[in-house]
């Protein structure tokens, strides 16, 4: 890329970020409700393939019932499955949450670590969950790549990769650090309302002048490529699991 092209691309990215800031504000807090670091970790594990609103409904009672990491570590899996079943994948999530609580007590004295290696070594914690915790609890700038972020980054020409870890690194290279946490929230908001997986509403989109995929996007976010099911790839450990209708345990 020539210097001139490079500058033009930086200016395009700056315009995209300004428009996102104007549309969605600059509050970088996660939509998940929590009071402590371990609560955010649990809420983020529960949010795999589930809406934040549903997770917030479930955790309201859950954190009242299990008001310490010790209680969660000693929870009966069957009972926990019932407590969280409306979030989907309740069996794996309950298993991971109990194992994660036990690991936090055994390996970290009940504290949630801030480094990515220790976080991703915890049961049920992949790179995405680790980055949510690092960004929100420790203020460590990080970019969380979920299906919305990956898809829209590709549509906007900010990444050509499918692998979320590669998308994360592409975005870290192109987006200024003060937008690393925000870009996740902004692209999720855009992905839920306008730049949807199957039918992006390009004509209503406030980024249409800056988007190379305007009027061409569908499926995975690749222009002209094969459509893939959204959420098919998450990379790293199992942050997201294959969706299925929740059945009462
Ligand atoms: S113009 Fe279309 S493809 Fe591009 S970001 Fe907006 S909705 Fe998505």
Descriptive account of the structure:
The chain has 249 residues and is an all-alpha fold. Among the domains are: 37-137, Orthogonal Bundle (Endonuclease III, domain 1), CATH 1.10.340; 143-210, Endonuclease Iii, domain 2 (Orthogonal Bundle). Helix content is 51%, strand content 0%. It is built from 11 helices and no strands. The chain has helices at residues 3-24, 37-46, 52-65, 69-73, 77-84, 90-108, 116-120, 127-137, 147-155, 164-174, 180-193. It is elongated. The structure holds iron/sulfur cluster. Iron/sulfur cluster is lined by residues 152, 155-156, 194-195, 200-202, 205, 207-208, 211, 213-214, 217.
Short structural summary:
By secondary structure, the chain is an all-alpha fold. The chain has helices spanning 3-24, 37-46, 52-65, 69-73, 77-84, 90-108, 116-120, 127-137, 147-155, 164-174, 180-193. The protein has eleven helices and no strands.
Topology, element by element:
Elements: H1 3-24, H2 37-46, H3 52-65, H4 69-73, H5 77-84, H6 90-108, H7 116-120, H8 127-137, H9 147-155, H10 164-174, H11 180-193
Helix pairs in contact: 1-11, 2-6, 2-8, 5-6, 9-10, 9-11
The structure holds iron/sulfur cluster (SF4).
């Amino acid at each position: 890329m020539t210097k001139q092209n490079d500058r033009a691309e930086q200016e395009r990215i700056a315009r995209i970020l300004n428009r996102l800031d104007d549309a969605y504000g600059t509050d970088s807090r996660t939509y998940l409700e929590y009071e402590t670091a371990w609560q955010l970790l649990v809420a983020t594990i529960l949010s795999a393939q589930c809406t934040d609103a549903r997770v917030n409904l479930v955790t309201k009672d859950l954190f009242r019932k299990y008001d310490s990491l010790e209680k969660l570590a000693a929870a009966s899996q069957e009972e926990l499955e019932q407590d969280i079943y409306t979030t989907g994948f309740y069996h794996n999530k309950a298993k991971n949450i109990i194992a994660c609580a036990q690991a936090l007590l055994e390996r970290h004295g009940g504290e949630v670590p801030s480094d990515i290696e220790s976080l991703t070594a915890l049961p049920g914690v992949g790179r995405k969950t680790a980055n949510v915790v690092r960004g929100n609890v420790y203020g460590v700038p990080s970019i969380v790549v979920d299906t919305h972020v990956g898809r829209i980054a590709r549509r906007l020409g900010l990444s050509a990769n499918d692998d979320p870890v590669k998308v994360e690194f592409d975005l870290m290279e192109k987006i200024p650090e003060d937008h690393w946490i925000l870009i996740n929230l902004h692209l999720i908001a855009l992905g839920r309302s306008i730049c949807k997986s199957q039918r992006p509403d390009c004509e209503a989109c406030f980024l249409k002048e800056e988007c190379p995929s305007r009027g061409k996007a569908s499926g995975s976010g690749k222009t002209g490529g094969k459509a893939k099911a959204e959420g098919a790839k998450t990379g790293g450990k199992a942050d997201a699991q294959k969706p299925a209708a929740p059945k009462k345990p």
